[in-house]
């Protein structure tokens, strides 16, 4: 892995052709996207998110980028506009919460993960509005460059079509594609929708820099970390400790082979839901990942063995938070926990699983930089 701390880098701000570009990151979380943009050499001014527990990781690891705690559904766009300098190229990026669009939550909503019952507490409508909030902010500020990142399923939703139309109406050139994260150096088979829009002309995601002959593997990413026992606390690195396993789950993981399924288990270990016809298709839960391929998608629950194929390839335990962070391509020394705050394992896991993989963020940043420098060349001709 190519690892550099963003605060060791001078955000160049000035791109190839001389124009100064500055970035504001909406829904910034703990800064996966911001960190990647900084590594690409863009100057990120600030990130905005309503979850104050993201502040430490966001600011500690990301140079002078400041964290603004605010609800973007009610924040005046004028406040965001005022963050940019008076001249230069304004870049607005963001990754709104993606729960309403993910395959898992869609199934959950239909009741497939919930014993066939519809969920009463489904709150997605509220969250969908955040894409409309993003669109309103773009309309108000008219930044020269816009990018959003989200789950691929978003592309089929009306809210996405509306956002796309609004960008075209405002005069942007728009492209969008589904990025396969291993193509950009992430050892995780996550797929993400990346939309890029520019007032200067065509802007699209750079071509893949890896292929299936040289995708970074789980072994390369986490293979040299110290051995960990399920449930044991690791005082050297709090993040590198694994969730406790019940005796039956310990027996289950011992019966799991890398890349296999619960079908490999003895009948006595199978869950009731596995025995129902609807349960037959959930083959990846209680799975073990394989060493020599990218990992499965790191969700917000990757640190639980029963939540997906999150079993370690050879140790009898689920992934640790540290391993999830590395598979999300965060640098090994990225600091996630404010020493002044109580350590909340579940919350850190959610932050890590929610993040844009840093290396995908870097690819988005590279795409923007190249585009600006080409636009400048064209202006000078
Ligand atoms: C998918 S995560 C963003 C991940 C982040 N871009 C990264 O790369 O680490 C979505 C974020 O939106 C934030 N969020 C949810 N509702 C919000 C709101 N109304 N205003 C501001 N932030 C919000 C959540 O706290 C969460 O951190």
Q: What name does CATH use for the topology of the largest domain?
A: Rossmann fold
Overall mean confidence score, pLDDT: 87
Number of strands: 7
Alpha-beta content class = alpha/beta
Shape: globular
Helix-strand sequence: EHEHEHEHHEHEEHHHHHH
- Name of the CATH class of the largest domain: Alpha Beta
Q: What is the CATH architecture annotation of the largest domain? A: 3-Layer(aba) Sandwich
Distance N terminus to C terminus?
A: 39 Å
Instruction: Give the proportion of residues in helices.
Output: 25-40%
| Main pleated-sheet profile | 7 strands, mixed
Strand content: 5-15%
Radius of gyration: 21 Å
List the domain count as a whole number.
2
Mind telling me the CATH superfamily name of the largest domain? Vaccinia Virus protein VP39
Helix run count = 12
Strand order of the largest sheet: 3-2-1-4-5-7-6
Protein architecture, described:
The protein has 381 residues and is an alpha/beta fold. It has twelve helices and seven strands. Helix 5 (124-141) packs parallel to helix 6. Residues 1-17 and 101-124 have low confidence and may be disordered. The chain has helices spanning 32-39, 55-60, 77-81, 103-110, 124-141, 158-169, 218-222, 247-254, 272-275, 321-327, 345-354, 358-380, and strands at 21-26, 43-49, 66-69, 89-94, 145-150, 173-180, 191-198. It has two domains: 6-211 and 356-374, Vaccinia Virus protein VP39 (Rossmann fold, 3-Layer(aba) Sandwich), CATH 3.40.50.150; 218-354, Alpha-Beta Complex (DNA Methylase, Chain A, domain 2), CATH 3.90.120. It binds S-adenosylmethionine. S-adenosylmethionine binds at residues 27-33, 49-51, 54, 71-73, 95, 97-98, 130, 354-356.
């Amino acid at each position: 892995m190519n690892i550099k701390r963003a605060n060791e880098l001078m955000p160049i701000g000035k791109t190839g052709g001389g124009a100064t570009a500055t970035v504001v990151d909406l829904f910034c979380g703990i800064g996966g996207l911001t960190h990647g943009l900084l590594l690409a050499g863009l100057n990120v001014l600030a990130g905005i998110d309503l979850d104050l527990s993201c502040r430490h990781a966001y600011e500690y690891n990301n140079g002078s980028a400041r964290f603004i705690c605010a609800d973007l559904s009610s924040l005046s766009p004028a406040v965001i506009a005022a963050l940019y300098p008076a001249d230069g190229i304004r870049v607005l990026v963001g990754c709104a919460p993606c729960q309403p669009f993910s395959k898992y939550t869609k199934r959950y909503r239909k009741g497939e993960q919930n014993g066939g019952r519809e969920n009463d507490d489904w709150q997605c409508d509220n969250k969908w509005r955040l894409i409309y909030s993003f669109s309103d902010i773009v309309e108000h500020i008219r930044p020269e460059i816009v990018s959003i990142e989200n789950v691929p399923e978003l592309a089929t939703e009306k809210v996405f079509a509306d956002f796309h139309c609004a960008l075209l109406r405002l005069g942007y050139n728009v492209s969008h594609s589904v990025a396969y994260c291993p193509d950009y150096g992430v050892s995780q088979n996550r797929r993400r929708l990346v939309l890029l829009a520019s007032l200067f002309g065509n802007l699209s995601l750079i071509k893949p820099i890896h292929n299936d002959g040289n995708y970074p593997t789980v072994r390369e990413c986490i293979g040299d970390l110290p051995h960990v026992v399920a449930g044991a606390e690791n005082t050297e690195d709090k993040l590198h400790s694994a969730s406790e396993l019940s005796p039956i789950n310990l027996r289950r993981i011992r019966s799991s082979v890398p890349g296999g399924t619960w079908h490999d288990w003895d009948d006595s270990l199978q869950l009731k839901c596995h025995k129902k016809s609807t349960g037959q298709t959930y083959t990846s839960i209680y799975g073990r990942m394989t060493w020599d391929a990218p990992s499965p998608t790191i969700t917000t629950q990757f640190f639980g063995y029963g939540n997906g194929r999150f079993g370690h390839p050879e140790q009898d335990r689920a992934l640790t938070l540290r391993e999830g962070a590395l598979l999300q391509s965060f640098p090994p020394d990225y600091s996630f926990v404010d020493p002044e705050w109580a350590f909340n394992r579940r919350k850190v896991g959610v932050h890590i699983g929610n993040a844009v993989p840093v290396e995908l963020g870097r690819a988005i940043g590279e795409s923007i930089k190249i585009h600006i420098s080409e636009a400048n060349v064209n202006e000078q001709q």
